[in-house]
Amino acid sequence: VSRQLKEEIKRGFARLEDPFAGLLAMLESSSDWKGKGHSLGYCITTELQLWIKEHPAVPQSGTKLKKLQARVLGLLSQCPANLLDPLISIYQLHTADRNYLLEHVNHLYLQGDYKEAAILSIKLKLQPDQDVEKMCTPLLLQDKANLVEDYVGEYPELQSKLLQTLDMWCDPSFNIRDITRPYQGLPRYKPEKFNRRVLSKLVFRLLERFNVDPALCPNVINQRHLRTLNYLFYKRFVEKTMTEENWADHVQSTVGENQWLQGHLVQLLLRHCGVRSTARWARRCRVPPEMLPRAVAEELKKLHIQDRVEEITKADNYEDSKKKDYYQLPIPRENIHFLHTWEETLQCWEKVLQPGRVVGVDMEWKPSFGMVGKPRVALLQLALKDEVFLLDLPRLLEQAEAEGEKEKLPRFIHRLYSDAAITKLGYGMSGDLSSLAATCSALKDTEKQMQGVVDLLAVDKQVDGLSPEHSHEERGVRQPEKGLSLLVHHVLGKPLDKTEQLSNWEKRPLREEQILYAASDAYCLLEIYERLCKDPESFGLSSDLTESLVGKQSKKNRAKKQLNKQEAPSPSGQECQGPKTEPSHPPAPISPREFSVVCDNMLQGLGRYLRCLGVDVRLLDNEDDHRRAAEIARQEGRVILTSGLPYQTLRSQVGEGRCFSVNCSEKAKEQALQVLKHFNVQVSLTDIFSRCQ
């Protein structure tokens, strides 16, 4: 707003006998302020708010104020959100009679203005005097779950009431139509958004956001546990990709002493096993005899006490084929060290934190099976050329806290990840570091400080011929390989044995199979890296892969060069050298309408940002191969915008200067500035939003 307009508004207030009534008269007779954005009405209202602060000698009170409050309440349900707070403040609605305010909100509700009634209730803090189920039901039917969250956001008692209501609706015996029937004619009603599955997801979101005890929602929790139980039976008896011990750990921790789940466990056991095996598992899971079918109860009486449950199904020859079919650790078992004391861990650090080291890093956590909360890392694996260290993170953190040295672990992790002289290998590092931050809050910024890291997930996407259908010979019921197992199979000849992947990694002691699995997951990264660096071309990778992967120069030192010199970030987040020659003079300026690009699928945010500026953009879908960008570029005369290893592959498939590597660590705005500067694209005001978004 111009200074001249502000001064004119202030002079207008000074001339009015009653500026409060004057503002309302203006708003009531004008439609300008009802639109979105900063209208003239909004400017005048906010200026009055400031003017009142400067002129405290004009307070409103008594009958006159009540009349003004009655008038302003009539406006609030129609006005845009940005006017609510100023009007509530100016007319002191928080001091108005509470019953009068509740009546007004109830009138809005009865008119069908449910959203407006909820927003006004939030602004005036009326929720404690309202029925949370009544206020929130129509909002949920209109798919306004975010507004429902805000409605109960500051009131723990209302959060509990809402969660109990939602949990009641999720009871399989509850008829949801009883809820929806009174609202059949509701505008913007979305019945497809109102079912047990959607409500269950909302319950879990609210439990996590408000940190409420899940025991408050037994129906939703039981249903989620039952889905977990069905999944575990599928993995064990259909896919046959879980060992018995691993499966048993999860079944017992899922069912616990919950009799409802115990009943479902017995039914699943009878469906997949014989009566004898069902009786044994019923005893192991402490299922009360009165819950068992007669045949199972009779079998239970015949059983002698056993320490170990026998195999449920016929042997599938899994153990016999393991060494023949799967990747095996090339180091002796005694070189795998499980560390649960700080004395041992400090010795490990001395070996790992050496300049020039290449370290395979992996992490394991207990599967959450969709329950509340982020997974917490239970095991950190560090692989060196001759040995592997398995760090018992929960135990080490507990010891450090007891000794008053909470910073011990974060200090080591920060040193490891920020040292450019140590090459860290991982696979899907972002997910690992997110779980690490959930385990120890002091590690939340680790990803921002990373140097000298190589995420083989980025390399994986570029390796020729890497697809599930090429990943295995037919081996009966064996599942196609994927992820790291597929990369290991392609590069080293055999896949990883993933039968322990879904283990309970928090249970101690770890089983021998878990220890070998965890060590293999970290050590195989060293072997893949070594093989790819020695012979990248045989895997369809650029011949300068070695230089791009092991380059140690930090991001910070080269960030400025990135704007003027085209460089390709390596999968490690470090930069690798692009073309060495810079153009002798900048290209001629062009408008966004003349600039056509195709954005690789890791740059969708950049693509959308450029489109806002008027650039002709095509975006690759997530499932598209990077090489699709080269096809589009050749057919339609577009410039390719990509990052990392795809740049090495794509730049050779188009003309010189027609492929540009963007720094993936930057935000979309900074990436766009980099692209516009490089290609000398001049953006004018008329270009902005000139294309359909």
Automatic annotation (TrEMBL):
Occurrences of domain 3'-5' exonuclease (ranges): 336-537
Q: Which Pfam families match?
A: DNA_pol_A_exo1, Mut7-C
The record's Gene Ontology biological-process terms are: nucleobase-containing compound metabolic process
What keywords appear on the UniProt entry?
Answer: Exonuclease, Hydrolase, Nuclease
GO molecular function annotations of the record: 3'-5' exonuclease activity; nucleic acid binding
Renumbered to this chain, the Basic residues biased-composition regions fall at 553-563
Segments carrying the region annotation (Disordered) are: 551-591
Judging by the UniProt lineage, the source's domain of life is Eukaryota
Q: Which CDD domains match?
A: mut-7_like_exo
Q: Does the keyword Transmembrane apply?
A: no
UniProt lists compositionally biased (Polar residues) regions at: 565-575
Q: Does the keyword Transcription regulation apply?
A: no
Q: What is this protein called?
A: MUT7 Exonuclease
Organism equals Origma solitaria
